[in-house]
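Quick illustration, no need to memorize.
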Amino acid sequence: MKKRKLIGVIISEVEELYQHKLLRGIISQCYALNYDVAIFSTFIKDSDFTEYKIGEKNIFNLMNLSLFDGILVASLTLVIENLAEEIEQMLLEKCECPVLFMDKPAKFFPSINTNDWEAAEKIVDHLIEEHEYHDIYCLAADPNAVATKLRVEGYKASLRKHNIPIDESRISYEGDFGHTGGEHLARRLASGEIKKPDAVMCINDRMAIGLANELLNHGIHVPEDIAITGYDGIDETAICYTSITTFSAPIIQTGIDAVCELSEMMTGVKPEPYKTYTGNLEIGHSCGCSDINYVKRSGILRLKDKLDDYKIFLDSYMTESLTTARDLEDCINKFCYYLYLIKNYSDYYLCLCDNWDDSTDHYDAEDPVHTKAGYTENMKLALVCEDAKPVKSNDNFKTKDMIPDLWREREKPKAYYFTPLHFNDFCIGYSVITYGDKVKAYDITYRNWSRNIMNALEYYRMNKKLYLASFRDVLTGVYNRNGLNQNLPIILDEAIREKKMLLVFMADLDNLKEINDNFGHMEGDHVISVVAKAIQSCLIGDEICARVGGDEFLVVGTCDETTGSPEEFIRKVNKYLRKYNKNSMKPYKIKISMGAFGDYITEKSKINEMINYADYIMYQNKARNKQKYNL
């Protein structure tokens, strides 16, 4: 089967309405052209939590840009500080395929915009033609924003069409695309600072909602005293105190047009759009219309679905259940169970970095540098659900492939959503969800579900680390006395059962006080860690090494009479330290005293005698070393 072309989409907050509509157009047109789609998204637009933003943005480092045939960037959604610029720079440096930005211009790449002009013109047409308003004020925002320019031009075009003079003083750019912009205008109107118009055309819905609510606080009624319209068609316009007349922008068409233009950049031939969407006027009370059927408002239907889904999510007790997981396998099984909360998905993949849990099979006292930018070379498929059914998996794959399913032969194209798994700036991995050949985007339930997954994995990771720390020495990573007591019976049982020789080794630093006094306790800690590594490097089997005092170490294990003899063990430790002292460039030499003893045992209690004897040998050697080094 011929390999399909792969289109990449860079976006933020897929669950929002604008993003849903844009992706509906993108995916629909890609499916019509038999293209696969890989969508990379953060769960947040912006946040004051710097570390969290780092964890979110990392998902874009996953993209293997050499595998894509074209890239679409929903730059209007990338409002995390400097993110749009970072993405553009990344694409400029690493991407060789065509790139197209949407609804916000880029410095080095072409862009395409939603047809806000005609849509804004239609909503002003409604105010003039249906309600005979002529003094229409325009509340705009950032005059440099593309959306502002197009929507204001649409407002002016309608006035010109109806032979109404354009008064620039009736256009305000003091809005902020938020509720406060509308509230500010309401106070100016209420105070008489601005002459009350027949109607106010707001270039987005949130300013319209803020305006309507604040006017009511000042005793000015909508639409009786002033009519209001918004723009965008967000869900809240259907349920606020005065339902807002708005225009559902033709964003779906933007997605369709973007794919068609990108396809022409890729192939030299521009395809026909599979369908045409012009957007639609959604009537509310705020413009003066009556006999409105609110049930038919698209926002009402969407909000009903959201509320139903959110109630099911809250009633699931997913958060509480995940905290009871006994181990990682139990945790993954619970993730799998709670996938029932995600509606209509086809496949789900949980991909974990190699080092995400600091390697829970052993304890590394030196906290590793957590992955913050990019991912490990290989990823582990910790959970796979295909056709909404779990598939047993413990496979690894190359991170450069992003997800193996992308490269399998399929009859129909798919759209894959890649989202980050992290705890603050610590990278855990990523999730991938697909709805098969359905044109669908994930919603707020999936976002919150994924946040529960992140928190549960971090909860498991920290519990594991605390558990390991309970029997490991924090400085060196070897066992502490608690760890020694837990593991010593296992070694003794093996020595007795299999009639193996038991090795007991003791070591003590000779010049730790001198190093602490002359070079500081941090340097002393470093020396203790070096000795621990020297001893660990000589372990060849199941021996256990423990730090049993400030600078004392004990090794107990079964050994061979030749290669694992006490004398051979001491020789190897000395060899390691001689090499270190020669190459370390430190102003001191590490000096230790050692004692070792090997014997066969028939009962566990003999271990105390052996430890005492090894300790005796060590202190004899320490006495000789004091004379030798004049310590």
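Confidence is low (pLDDT under 50) at residues 359-366.
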